[in-house]
């Protein structure tokens, strides 16, 4: 009878989660679903990470899913990360705090009782040690309602736990870098999930070295440019200019598509197969770019150049 009362009371509790579709976020959602809490989830997208695996994971759990475009926030954090960067170009503490702020604002506007994430205490050296979890919660502005179901028993109780909306005794006490406990839970429930990590370009050393080149030049760190530098060979043409030269058909197609999306100039020299070149920065370096794409220039796309530019 007592148990029945508890379950009935929790039927109306609503939780909104940050959800990558990775192992930890799947289990965090499942832990709450097992308490008959109504769970909805959000996946964030930007030039550096996408929401596809979040959508797939939510479908697997049968829970409502939505995407929030996080591009503007993450671009501004790259320009000025108050808590600094991790090992590469990843401003994880401020990024997490920004995501939870957006989550909290959405939750408040839509009457959710709590927000949650799949963070695990001690899993990542910079962003998920205990001090960082506290800092993220404080910076988000929604500390009181931010629940981490996987490590909750190791953390101070949140408001929803204190109010009995969430049964703390049924939350987990996971910590550290090993994912064995999560893998066991996933196997038990038959979850399909992607290998942990690797979902964010900002943690990729190769991409980060390209991004740093862009960040060093005032005015060049834009969303489109951040997407473009994923493709082709990259050259520092001068102190204020970067050149990209396609290495494959796919590179060429992506570079052309992105340059066009950015409202830039494009044209092709007829019947001459070869790489696509993109100039990001000062048009005075056009000759240098042309010499790179050299004898076999076909399409040449120039960014940040006026419409009347001629090759
Ligand atoms: S890994 Fe990327 S998406 Fe995740 S918190 Fe860090 S910067 Fe943000």
Explain this structure:
This protein has 311 residues and is of the alpha/beta class. The protein is 39% helix and 15% strand. It has two domains: 2-194, Rossmann fold (3-Layer(aba) Sandwich); 204-302, no CATH class. The strands form two sheets. A five-stranded parallel β-sheet has the order 3-2-1-4-5, with helices on both faces. Strands 6-7-9-10-8 form a five-stranded mixed β-sheet, with helices on both faces. Helix 2 links the parallel strand 1 (14-18) and strand 2. Helix 2 crosses helix 8 (180-189) and helix 5 (92-110) crosses helix 6. The longest helix is centred in the first third of the chain and has 19 residues, at 92-110. The radius of gyration is 23 Å and the shape is elongated. Iron/sulfur cluster is lined by residues 49, 90-92, 95-96, 127, 200, 202-203.
Structure at a glance:
The protein is of the alpha/beta class. It has helices at residues 2-10, 23-33, 52-61, 71-79, 92-110, 130-140, 159-162, 180-189, 205-216, 223-228, 249-261, 286-293, and strands spanning 14-18, 38-45, 65-69, 114-116, 146-147, 233-238, 241-245, 265-268, 277-280, 299-302.
Secondary-structure class: alpha/beta
Total tally of structural domains? 2
Oligomeric state of this protein: single chain
Please give the number of β-strands: 10
In CATH terms, the superfamily of the largest domain is: HUPs
Helices, strands, pairings?
Layout: H1 2-10, E1 14-18, H2 23-33, E2 38-45, H3 52-61, E3 65-69, H4 71-79, H5 92-110, E4 114-116, H6 130-140, E5 146-147, H7 159-162, H8 180-189, H9 205-216, H10 223-228, E6 233-238, E7 241-245, H11 249-261, E8 265-268, E9 277-280, H12 286-293, E10 299-302
Helix pairs in contact: 2-8, 5-6
